[in-house]
Amino acid sequence: MAGPFKRWGFLAALDYETWPAERVAQTLAAQGYGAVEWTLAHFDPRRMNDAELDAAFAASRKHGIAVSEIVVQQDLVCADKAERARRVDLTIAAAKAAVWRDVNLINVLTGPNRWETGHVDVGQAMPEGEAWTLLLDAYARMLDGLAEIGAVAALEPCWGGLAHDFHSTGVLLRRFGSHPAFGINFDPSHFALARDDLSWVIAELGPYIRHVHIKDVAGMPGRDGKEFIFPLIGEGLVDWQAVFTALDAARYRGVMSVEFESYRYYRTILKSDPARASELSMQQLRALEDLLPEGMRA
């Protein structure tokens, strides 16, 4: 991608999920973004035909922005075997549809997704060992399925999930680090929340990092998630200069995409307008651009 601004992307969540893909792509392109992450709201093979799936990619191409990855993020710590299999199958189906359209990166989590109704309370409703056993089995099947079609799972270690910091992510690295379909979506906010050393983590995970999220965090981790927030970029714990320097040293040259989760600010100040959220985020990204090492500007 030519030029620093082409590296900036935006995850089309929030109320963008209710907008037509054409309007989302046009808005993001006009604001200066070079990439978009589509979610299942705009790219879901369960409920969309080929023409509908094409729409998100056609809109992106029309407005000159890349599709950096498809966000699927299924909770694979699921006690119902049939439902767990359906979630694995959905991930593979979304990946297959994306690969047909020349995008091979799929954003995934481990689970449990504590913000979703009905998630498993590991340690209470299910022993941790059982949760890991279910997850590792699901990941083996998912990764094998993705490898067959030339796709890569970009795991996002995330608060609340079995993989949520560097050390818990190590369980998956030891099992699947050599698998051709295994990668990392590096979101510094979750590692900062765990008080991991971000520069060291990036150096260790560098060979696996396929995609980067731009998101800040403030507070402390807790079981119910009320002890922390994802504030505006620059207000939290993430040392962005250290992050960019470490990513540059790791030779990362891919998309860095905003995942806007300042939900209270979004509702009360931005009045749930996703275009205002992405515009504000671009203002913050332009300020951060001064921190980019020379190698990341090309």
CATH topology: TIM Barrel
The average pLDDT score comes to 94
How helical, in percent, are the residues?
Answer: 40-55%
Question: What structural class do the secondary elements suggest?
Answer: alpha/beta
Order of H and E elements:
EHEHEHEHEHEHHEEEHEHH
Q: Write down the CATH class.
A: Alpha Beta
Domain count: 1
CATH superfamily: Divalent-metal-dependent TIM barrel enzymes
Report the end-to-end length measured between terminal Cα atoms.
8 Å
Question: Total number of helical segments?
Answer: 10
Q: Which descriptor suits the 3D outline?
A: globular
CATH architecture call: Alpha-Beta Barrel
Report the sheet with the most strands, covering strand number, pairing sense and barrel closure. Answer: 8 strands, parallel, barrel
Overview of this protein structure:
The chain is of the alpha/beta class. The protein has helices spanning 21-31, 50-62, 81-99, 128-149, 166-176, 188-193, 198-205, 240-249, 263-268, 274-288, and strands at 8-11, 35-39, 66-71, 105-108, 152-155, 182-186, 209-214, 218-219, 228-229, 256-258. The strands form 2 sheets. An 8-stranded parallel β-barrel has the order 1-2-3-4-5-6-7-10, surrounded by 5 helices. A two-stranded antiparallel sheet has the order 8-9. Helix 4 (128-149) links the parallel strand 4 and strand 5 (152-155). Helix content is 41%, strand content 14%. The chain has a single domain (4-261, 272-296), classed as TIM Barrel. The radius of gyration is 18 Å and the shape is globular.
